[in-house]
Amino acid sequence: MKYNPEDKINFFISKTPSLNGFNFEKIEGGKNNKAYLVWNKLGKKYFLKEYFSSKDDKRSRLNIECDFLEFIKKTKKINFPKIIIKDESLNLALFSFIDGKKISTNKITDEHVHQVADFIISINSYPDNINFSNMASDYNYSIQSFIETVDSRVKKLSFATNIDLKLKNKLIALKKKIIKLWDIEKININNEFSHSEIKTKIPLFLSPSDIGFHNILMNNGKLFFFDFEYSGLDDLVKLVNDFFTCPSAKIPFKFKQKFISRLMSSLTTDNLFMRRINALERSYKIKWSCILLNEYLIHSKDRRIFSKDKHDYNLSSDQYYRSHDLLLS
Fold this sequence. Notes:
Blueprint: H1 5-14, E1 23-27, E2 33-39, E3 45-51, H2 61-72, E4 83-87, E5 92-96, H3 110-123, H4 143-155, H5 165-192, H6 195-199, E6 204-207, E7 216-219, E8 222-225, E9 232-235, H7 236-245, H8 256-266, H9 273-279, H10 281-292, H11 301-308, H12 318-328
Helix pairs in contact: 3-8, 4-5, 4-10, 5-10, 7-9, 7-10, 10-12
């Protein structure tokens, strides 16, 4: 059954006895979901999330996030949301409400970065983590698989038809620059690593995947983590380089070595770990330059309309400039 957005949330609340007397309001969410604050007059609050789904994307973002949260409960930590209700029929999940504020780039400290590292260490402190069944989105199991991931993103740079001609010409020029730089980086990777090193399978760690201060809130100095719909087993190098490359929450580069050292002090990494972090750093910028251009791709239109509830959603040039600046940084 199809619902308009408000009817769907009203139906969910009406069929959930524990939410009797609760109201809701739409709040800022991600680019691939809708978010709601659910509250009552007594001050009780919940966070409600509606997940995007598509016949072209078979992943259940709802189940991926909830599986991850259920699995990491064994850490006995309370710095992530608790699942209250999961409704697969409506593609909704209700979570405990995290009261906190986001940290701006110029306010990030050593202690904040240490807490992020400690969170990663805590969720990887159990020997049965390797039995976790979900792989992270775009997970990498070798250098070769990373190369294939970036190859795939570059090949998908087919821009939508409803883009202003001036902007589209800029995007086409940027795409050519990305292809040229990626071709150079692939040569550099092959020069840095032997054929066997490129093919070697690397150990996988449990990862939130979309880790960054855009998905972290702080309350009384303690960090709380959320948004795990891309989570699963992944390469720790990908986590590190994504954390410091993702433009959604820029982290000062001066914290990178401290973050790595803290991870390595508690987690057993492979003998190519540091080489891969350093040698692939530039390639991760190319990957993220492609990700930033998702806004303009043919296949991304439905996700943007879903998250914004607007069928006349207009494309701006913001993501183009962010992609351009990251590529040249």
